[in-house]
Amino acid sequence: MKSQRCNHFLYLPPRVDEDIPAEMVAEESGPGAQNSPYQLRRKSLPKRTVCPTKTNMEGASTSTIENFGHRPKRPRVSGKCQDLSVAPAEQYLQEKLPDEVVLKIFSYLLEQDLCRAACVCKRFGELANDPILWKRLYMEVFEYTRPMMHPEAGKFYQINPEEYEQPNPWKESFQQLYKGAHVKPGFAEHFYSNPARYKGRDNMFYYDTIEDALGGGQEPHFDGLIFVHSGIYTDEWIYIESPITMIGAAAGKVAEKVIIENTRDSTFVFMEGSEDAFVGYMTIRFNPDDKSAQHHNAHHCLEITVNCSPIIDHCIIRSTCTVGSAVCVSGQGACPKIKHCNISDCENVGLYITDHAQGIYEDNEISNNALAGIWVKNHGNPIIRRNHIHHGRDVGVFTFDHGMGYFESCNIHRNRIAGFEVKAYANPTVVRCEIHHGQTGGIYVHEKGRGQFIENKIYANNFAGVWITSNSDPTIRGNAIFNGNQGGVYIFGDGRGLIEGNDIYGNALAGIQIRTNSCPIVRHNKIHDGQHGGIYVHEKGQGVIEENEVYSNTLAGVWVTTGSTPVLRRNRIHSGKQVWTCFQPKRWNHDSEINIYGWGLLLRQRPRCCALFSGLGFIEDNEIFDNAMAGVWIKTDSNPTLRRNKIHDGRDGGICIFNGGRGLLEENDIFRNAQAGVLISTNSHPVLRKNRIFDGFAAGIEITNHATATLEGNQIFNNRFGGLFLASGVNVTMKDNKILNNQDAIEKAVSRGQCLYKISSYTSYPMHDFYRCHTCNTTDRNAICVNCIKKCHQGHDVEFIRHDR
């Protein structure tokens, strides 16, 4: 139907003594328009401009308006008109006619008449600005139950009138929205059929279809503002290539009541020329009859092509097609602003950004999509802020094939796969997001993926908080990674990356796990209060681990095993917890073994058949202290290098080397440990060079049980029990060591005839000559000291066993 201007209002006014009906008077009674073949006229429109605050409404007419409830009693407006020579009738009308009567009369005026009446005198000016009058007019034209403010081009928002700072937001919004085209089935026919009833709104246009409104650019007063009123608009051909503004108009929740859908083609297509277009407050659906047919693979619910920068605001976007995304942004210069939209329940990808497209995407709700909530591919580089991406049936955000993007302050959670996946040279920047409660992992970087993940909260994911694998090299910096159901950061399969300045705590498995030839840089992290170990390096894991603080973990602070060769420098490893743990072979893939954990650093081989795997690596410039057991354990053919470490204030020994352990200990400071500074046992053979072992509460160095050692240039001083203790049968190689000023409490106790138990109690086991008493039928494991033999077992049949601990 051809568009017609509205020259009259919808209904004749009732008599003054009649009650005003409670329903909206702008009820359309005309028949709905039938869609007809239409070729879109692509005439460029001028940019949408906002109406000035000072009204330019013209013409005069009358109309009936509904009753919006009882108006509170208002004080009478006093004051006289400026013209003192008015006739008595005019004076009565202007000054003495009661306010209620004047307001009743004004209720029959349209907006232009009301503005003219306001110019008569001060009293009329105040009465004509009554908010209830303007609310009636406003809802009749626009249907909104709250004022829709339009302060500038591309910006619309609704307000609560009670909270608005100006006294009459209805009038203000009316002025901002006054010039525009209104679309609803039956509009044009209804107004054309009733020319005598409607008069005065020369700046408004009425259409039956959106296609007709888009072709209305030839109208002289039309400046591109289109109101689509409540209803369902199906299979219209909406290609936008001019800077139009299209907004839904309905009562209540506007977007839910204005529905535009297509069953054959993309519902909205923005083409070159629509750089300043605006679409808002409506539901946009693509709902093909055959949801999986191949001919739908290029169709989307909303498509934004090259050199387009429209604004999409407060829209609900749905697609039931299984082969096309809900929103597709593609091509050089595609740069929309999509905000406050709901992109959910789609049967494919929610938001797809590709082929160098950009854009700003803010405050959107993206949920329950069959594939990723967001795809970024092929140099797509969007800015995505404050989006809520959740409950996806696949990954939350997927960047791949050189996809990029800046993601800030997004809440990404409860997606079926990873919250954020990076693959195939993708390089996104993710800042201050929350990535949590993923059904698998939090962040998954693989197949040469990169990316910067900075200051995010990553927590409560079912698998690792961060996965890095297959030659990927991301930066993980300043994040809190905590309370995961498995590990914190898991690097495997030749993974790399920079893990820096993170707070990693409370995870069920290791805070950081490095395995299978992975080689990351791990520095300046806090790794603490884990339910497992702190850092676990195994299966030929490598990397540089420096200046981390590792503390209060249930198992080892750092655990290096199975041919791994990391470099550890300047770490603080302390406050470990003591735990008895039995590792079952099914879980750990090795023979059953019971170990006492709670140490700062453990290097060991997991026993399996006759294979000789070794814990290697460089442990340099670390601070290891306040652990429940030994600060460092070197076990089972492990052969690390420990250099320039501080190992102190342990609640057990400093370094424990046993079961064939080796290694080079060089230039370390080992002090104030509860047991021996260095204990070497069971066929071990380390090299100790230029270490300082001092202020211990037991021995400096103890060597026992067929172990040997090479000691060169060490300083051993001020230890309570003594400097160096060698068990029977132990031979060591010594050169240039200084053993001096030790307290020699054991030697002094023996010379005084004291029982050594009074020196050590049950907390330590000093090395001494111990005996067996045949009279008392003791065994060689009772370790009776020489003074007890002389006093308690005097005259008994005794036997010297060995010098040992």
UniProtKB/TrEMBL annotation:
Pfam families: Beta_helix, F-box-like
Presence of keyword Repeat: yes
Cited PANTHER family: F-BOX ONLY PROTEIN (PTHR22990), F-BOX ONLY PROTEIN 11 (PTHR22990:SF20)
Protein name per its UniProtKB record: F-box protein 11a
Pathway: Protein modification; protein ubiquitination
Keywords for this protein: Repeat, Ubl conjugation pathway
The F-box domain, residue ranges: 91-137
Record-level GO BP terms: regulation of apoptotic process; ubiquitin-dependent protein catabolic process
Domain of life of the source: Eukaryota
PROSITE patterns registered for this protein in UniProt: FBOX
